[in-house]
Design brief:
With 136 residues, the chain is α+β, with helices and mostly antiparallel strands. It has helices spanning 14-21, 43-51, 60-70, 89-97, 102-105; strands at 2-5, 8-11, 33-36, 39-42, 73-75. 30% of the residues lie in helices and 14% in strands. A hairpin with a 2-residue loop joins strand 1 and strand 2 (8-11).
Length: 136
């Protein structure tokens, strides 16, 4: 059967394609695929082997149309799976408990506490000259 792939005509038969793909290890399938024998091949790999052209020179659609006309089973690309956000156990716990209050960290929007200041409710342990055993 006469097929045009990448603007070049090819006279292909089903047996020619099967023979060309015999012994060829299938690459991982990421898009359209063609079933030849009991193996699933990416359409671009089939086109490259059968036409001996660089796979950048033709589309997977051209190969799919030609292979369908020859009687092969072709599969369209699988739709991309929806991405699902998976939270870690720590993230789930934080979401359930809520965010800490701003009072816990001081004034986070206004610059917080200055050096040497003690946040309310915390003991003062400066370790300076007039603290502890040396105080008179």
């Amino acid at each position: 059967m006469r097929c045009v792939i990448a603007r070049y005509p090819f006279d292909l038969t089903k047996s020619d394609v099967v023979e060309s793909m015999r012994g060829v290890k299938p690459e991982p399938i990421t898009g359209e695929s063609v079933i030849i024998g009991r193996r699933h091949y990416p359409a671009k790999q089939v086109g490259e082997v059968v036409t001996r052209q660089d796979r950048r020179d033709f589309s997977a659609g051209e190969v799919m149309r030609a292979m369908l006309r020859l009687g092969f089973t072709c599969r369209a690309a699988l739709p991309e799976a929806a991405t699902v956000r998976v939270d870690s156990p720590m993230q789930r716990a934080s979401a359930m408990l809520g965010a800490p209050s701003p009072e816990y960290f001081g004034d986070i929007h206004g610059g917080g506490f200055r050096a040497g200041e003690v946040p309310p409710g915390r003991p003062h342990t400066s370790g300076g000259a007039d603290s502890g055993a040396n105080a008179a």
